[in-house]
């Protein structure tokens, strides 16, 4: 299994609680997205297992990235 895919999954799962603490853990979704893309690329090119882990980490990273920064935008615009 690709280590990059596993790291993507770990960072994606850790980014979900980061929604609440977006000031402290705001970079975890971005790291999950980057490692998810790299994990998908490595598993495809080298034939490693871990496509599901990389894809799950990527999706979790994207969803938490969007939610976190929408919350940040809402907080910034409320008077």
TrEMBL record:
<keyword id="KW-1133">Transmembrane helix</keyword>
<keyword id="KW-0812">Transmembrane</keyword>
<feature type="transmembrane region" description="Helical">
    <location>
        <begin position="6"/>
        <end position="39"/>
    </location>
</feature>
<protein>
    <recommendedName>
        <fullName>DUF4190 domain-containing protein</fullName>
    </recommendedName>
</protein>
<keyword id="KW-0472">Membrane</keyword>
<feature type="transmembrane region" description="Helical">
    <location>
        <begin position="51"/>
        <end position="76"/>
    </location>
</feature>
